[in-house]
DNA sequence: TATGTTCGTTAACAAAAGATAATAAGTGAA
DNA sequence: TTCACTTATTATCTTTTGTTAACGAACATA
C-alpha cells in the first residue's frame, strides 16, 4: 500500500523526473491536518491561501443561497486537491465553506511558499501546470453536465462515475451538488427504482 | 486605441517584466485567423492543439445533446482565450464545435510550440499560470451560477454582468448556455417585463 | 425588392421541480 | 437502551420547465 506522499512523489517523478530523494524542498513545507466528520476546514468569509491534498476522507465546498439553503460547489475525496479559489485566484475572502463529510486527513502547503519553491526550483513547474490543467478540465466537464443533462441524467451520471461518493455522502449534499432540492432527488430515485 | 498584440504585450510585461521588444520569441509563432459569422473554427470530432486569443468577435463552444438539441459550454468574446480542452487536456478529439457568432479575428498559436517556448524561455512561465488560474476561476464561478441560482436568476446575472453578450448574441444561444430551452427563456423575459 | 429561412413569442398540455409539512427511518450521544 | 436530532421519503399544491406547434417579425440572400 502506497502512502499519499509516495503517490505524490511518483507523480512528481513522472512529470518532472525529480526523484523522491530530491523532492525534499517541495515536501518540506507540507503539514498534515486531521478533521473530524462535519468539521470545517475553511470557513466562509476567511482567507486561506493553502493548497491541500486529500490523503483520506471527503471535503465539500458550499455557500449559502439567498433563500438560506446551501449550494454545493464540489465534493472531492481521496487523491484530489482543494483550495480556496476566492482567496488564491480572486484575492478575496472565501465565499465558500470547506468542511469534511467524513474523518479526513489533508496534506497542506501554503500557496505562497509553493510559489517561492516554483520560482527557486523551476524543475517542479510541470507539476503546477499538470494540476491546474487537470482541475480546469474537471471543472469544464462539470459545467458540461449542467448544460447537456437533466437533473435525473446528472444523478445517473454521478452514480455511474462516482459511485464511491454516492455511497459515502448523504443524499442531501448530492442533491445540492446537482442543483436540485433533496425532495426532488428523492423523487428521481423513486422514478429510477420503478423502471 | 491599443491593438490586441499591444494589450498582450502589456500584460506580458506586468506579469513577467519582459518588454515588448523582447517578446518576439513568444509572438513569432502567432498567426491571425479570420472567421465569418457562423463560421466553424474547430469542428466536433477533430483534434486542435491551438490556443487562440479573441482579438475581435465572439466564439461559442457547443456540443449536441442526446435529443439533438445543442448545449453551449461557453460563449467568449474580445480579450478572452479559447482552446479545445478535449484536445489539449484530455488528448481526445473535441466533443465540442467552436464557431463564431459574429465576424471574428483570432490570434492563434500551436499549444505544443507554446510548450517549447515556455521550456526554453522560462521567463514567460507566469503568463501560463495567469491564464490557467484565470480560466479556472471563471469556470468555477460558472458552476457556482448553476448551483446557486434559478434559470431566471442566471439570466438576470447574465444581463447585468455580460450585457455586451446579451446584446450581441441571439437568445437561443443564451438559453442554451443557461441550460434551458429558448421557449423557457422567452417566458422568463416576459415575466421580467411584467414587473 | 422579393423570398425563403431563422428567430422570438405565444399557446396548450405534460412532466418535473420548488415549497411546505408530516412521517418514517436512521444516527449519534447521553 | 433511550431520546433527540438528522435524513429520506411521501403527499399536496404551486410554479416552472419541456415539448410541440403555430404565427409573425427579423434577417439574409438571390
Would you kindly provide a written description of the structure presented here, covering whatever features stand out?
Two copies of one chain form a homodimer. Chain A has 195 residues and is α+β, with helices and mostly antiparallel strands. Chain A has a domain at 4-123: Sandwich (Jelly Rolls). Chain A is 47% helix and 23% strand. Chain A has helices at residues 4-16, 24-27, 85-88, 111-120, 125-148, 151-161, 163-168, 171-178, 182-193; strands at residues 31-35, 40-42, 50-56, 58-64, 70-77, 81-83, 97-100, 104-110. A four-stranded antiparallel sheet of chain A has the order 1-8-3-6. Chain A starts with a helix and ends with a helix. The model of chain A has no long low-confidence stretch (mean pLDDT 95). The structure holds a DNA duplex (30 and 30 nucleotides).
The ordered string of helix (H) and strand (E) elements of chain A is: HHEEEEEEHEEHHHHHH
Largest sheet of chain A: 4 strands, antiparallel
State Rg of chain A: 18 Å
The percentage of residues in β strands of chain A lies in 15-25%
The class by helix and strand makeup of chain A works out as alpha+beta
- H/I helix tally of chain A: 9
- For this entry, what is the oligomeric state of its chains? homodimer
Biggest interface, chains and residues, is:
A-B, 32 and 32 residues
Please state the second-level CATH architecture of the domain at 4-123 in chain A.
Answer: Sandwich
Assign the CATH topology of the domain at 4-123 in chain A: Jelly Rolls
Mind telling me the CATH superfamily name of the domain at 4-123 in chain A? Answer: Jelly Rolls
Question: What is the distance, rounded to the nearest whole angstrom, between the alpha carbons of the first and last residues of chain A?
Answer: 41 Å
User: Unreliable stretches of chain A, pLDDT < 50, 5 or more residues?
Assistant: none
Amino acid at each position: 500500500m502506497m502512502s499519499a506522499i509516495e503517490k505524490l512523489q511518483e507523480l512528481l517523478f513522472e512529470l518532472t523526473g525529480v526523484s523522491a530523494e530530491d523532492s525534499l524542498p517541495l515536501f518540506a513545507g507540507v503539514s498534515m491536518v486531521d478533521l473530524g466528520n462535519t468539521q470545517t476546514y475553511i470557513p466562509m468569509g476567511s482567507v486561506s491561501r493553502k493548497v491541500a491534498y486529500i490523503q483520506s476522507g471527503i471535503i465539500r465546498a458550499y455557500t449559502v443561497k439567498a433563500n438560506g439553503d446551501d449550494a454545493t460547489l464540489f465534493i472531492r475525496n481521496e487523491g484530489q486537491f482543494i483550495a480556496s479559489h476566492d482567496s488564491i485566484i480572486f484575492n478575496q475572502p472565501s465565499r465558500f465553506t470547506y468542511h469534511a463529510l467524513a474523518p479526513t486527513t489533508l496534506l497542506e502547503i501554503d500557496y505562497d511558499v509553493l510559489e517561492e519553491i516554483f520560482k527557486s526550483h523551476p524543475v517542479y513547474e510541470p507539476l503546477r501546470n499538470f494540476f491546474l490543467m487537470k482541475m480546469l478540465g474537471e471543472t469544464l466537464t462539470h459545467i458540461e453536465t449542467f448544460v447537456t443533462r437533466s437533473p435525473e441524467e446528472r444523478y445517473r451520471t454521478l452514480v455511474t462515475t462516482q459511485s464511491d461518493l454516492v455511497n459515502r455522502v448523504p443524499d442531501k449534499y448530492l442533491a445540492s451538488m446537482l442543483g436540485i432540492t433533496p425532495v426532488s432527488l428523492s423523487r428521481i430515485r423513486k422514478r429510477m427504482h420503478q423502471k
